[in-house]
């Protein structure tokens, strides 16, 4: 009788372990999906910000170009047009970010860094461990106790 009970408990324990493993996998999958969705929303907000910025900056650049051109023609000094050069570089960068392929090129470069330059991605003193965090926590709590 004890053997059958033990076998039943073993089966029950095995089923519970399988359920817990499946539940953990499902929870991890949900967390990964949520993190990816949050990342997508952040990138979408960055692109939307760039598109909104380009409207205002484009208007500013247009008015500035007209004003500086009129000023250069009236005073007969072409040096007045010099500020248009850096402003147009800023405009081109923002336009590329908002409507061009800059995000794709940045993603490709990030993948290149991950694949070929792993040492740049390593954290100083390595990845924190439970022991290092606990050691720092204990040292901090001792500091506050002494005060």
Automatic annotation (TrEMBL):
Membrane-crossing segments per the record: 53-73, 79-98
Gene Ontology process terms (BP): positive regulation of plasminogen activation
Identification of the protein by name: Plasminogen receptor (KT)
GO cellular component, one term: plasma membrane
Pfam families xref list: DUF2368
Organism per entry: Chiloscyllium punctatum (Brownbanded bambooshark)
Keyword Mitochondrion attached: no
Extent of the signal sequence: none
Keywords linked to the UniProt accession: Membrane, Transmembrane, Transmembrane helix
Domain of life from the UniProt record: Eukaryota
């Amino acid at each position: 009788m004890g053997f059958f009970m033990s076998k039943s408990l073993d089966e029950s324990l095995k089923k519970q372990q399988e359920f817990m493993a499946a539940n953990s996998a499902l929870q991890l999958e949900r967390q990964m999906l949520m993190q990816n969705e949050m990342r997508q929303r952040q990138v979408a907000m960055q692109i939307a910000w760039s598109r909104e910025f380009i409207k205002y900056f484009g208007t500013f650049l247009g008015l500035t170009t007209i004003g500086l051109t009129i000023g250069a023609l009236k005073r007969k000094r072409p040096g007045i047009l010099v500020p248009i050069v850096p402003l147009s570089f800023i405009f081109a960068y923002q336009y590329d970010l908002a409507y061009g392929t800059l995000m794709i090129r940045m993603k490709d470069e990030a993948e290149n860094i991950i694949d070929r330059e792993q040492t740049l991605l390593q954290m100083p003193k390595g990845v924190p461990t439970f022991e290092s965090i606990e050691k720092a926590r204990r040292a901090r709590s001792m500091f506050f106790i002494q005060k």
